[in-house]
Amino acid sequence: MIINKEHLFEDNKKDLKSHKESFDFLGLKLDNEGHDVAKIITKLKDFQVAIPSWALGAGGTRFGRYSFYGEPSSLDQKIEDIGIIHTLTQTSGAVSLHIPWDIPEDFKSIKELACSLNIKFDAVNSNTFQDQKGAKESYKFGSLSNTSKAAREQAIQHNLDVINIGNKLGSKSLTVWLADGSNFPGQSNFQTALQHTESSLKSIYKGLPDDWSMLIEYKPYEPNFYSTVIQDWGTSFMLANACGEKAYSLVDLGHHLPNTNIEQIVSILMMKGKLGGFHFNDSKYGDDDLTVGSIKPYSLFLIFNELVYGMRNNPQNPNLAWMIDASHNIKDPLEDLIQSLESIQEAYAKALLVDQDALKDAQMNHDVVTCQEILQAAYRTDVRPLIEKARLDLGGAIHPIKAFRNLKVRETLIKERGKNTVATGL
Ligand SMILES: [Mn+2]
Fold this sequence. Notes:
Layout: H1 5-32, H2 37-46, E1 50-52, H3 75-89, E2 94-96, H4 107-116, E3 120-121, E4 124-125, H5 149-169, E5 173-176, E6 181-182, H6 190-206, E7 213-217, E8 227-228, H7 233-243, E9 247-252, H8 262-271, E10 275-280, H9 297-313, E11 321-324, H10 333-352, H11 356-364, H12 368-379, H13 384-393, H14 400-406, H15 409-417
Parallel strand pairs: 1-2, 2-3, 4-5, 5-7, 7-9, 9-10, 10-11
Antiparallel strand pairs: 6-8
Helix pairs in contact: 1-13, 2-13, 3-10, 5-6, 8-9, 9-10, 11-12
The structure holds manganese (II) ion.
Manganese (II) ion binds at residues 177, 217, 252, 279, 325.
């Protein structure tokens, strides 16, 4: 399904008047406060978040999975789904492929399809957390860290194959997330496991094209419940430094123990020029993979405040690869992604409103109350009219969820694909 632009234009008409009124009101207020509204809107328009190829179908837990009707059953259909979200939101102009779940059969045609929908190929993701059909070696006891040289070599080769696939599509980065670790004390030698991991990552790094980067993700626990080899940002940072200047840390919001100060991690990594990518989701307890901004929107804002600070003040840090890494167990996956995109844009827009100079002054004067006032004044601003304006200017929907329903997207997908399709890899 491809959204008919004329139908979308017609649908927007219903909300045009109220949008304009709220935008004019907010625009005037921000203008009076000294903000450059046009510049903020340009920044919002430029902000694109990749959708992972595994997020278009219903997710599940180890207890079960409830499928969603009309799910995409091929890579083509997944890219079409991202095209639908991008047409409505104008902020998801990239796909992040998971290999081997989504290896293109025909590179040329998949590139043409993505191009026709204005979708770029972002980071490619390797998978050494499960055994693949016909694989000689098992990852049951680790991949890049395995005590078996043959298993390590198989995992290294897989990552090199993923780079090769990404290269044919125009990707420029490889994301490595390792499930390696141990379930019981004494099972694994911490030092040997880390040494093996470092040397395996260096072998992959050697195969990286010059204009590529390697993003190293960390996670404290799960699937292993006693130790994880790359458990935290410090370990990821250490490995990125050991590999070289094209290797970076990747922060996934859900990959932290409760109450970790993620904004501080973001800030320090950017100061060191080593924050390469970002995975958005939200959580209450662990790696819950919930809709972005659904549980802790203020934390998300504080993280964006540091990201904006870093983007302004840390030229040593590269442009970030942004991606939503969530799982949709009970919602329509496309509606869930639209909600996540909206939350990301909201947090970004609010962070752009923080008066960094005034904050610095207040910090210098040890005026703690004013510091909080400055942050919360930005956070409490309802920035939705700015996001609507950015979308509308680009031809998107004023209210993407409403448009999704008014244009009967899910009904059409079910009609086209049937009820019982299942997205690959889930
Ligand atoms: Mn992730």
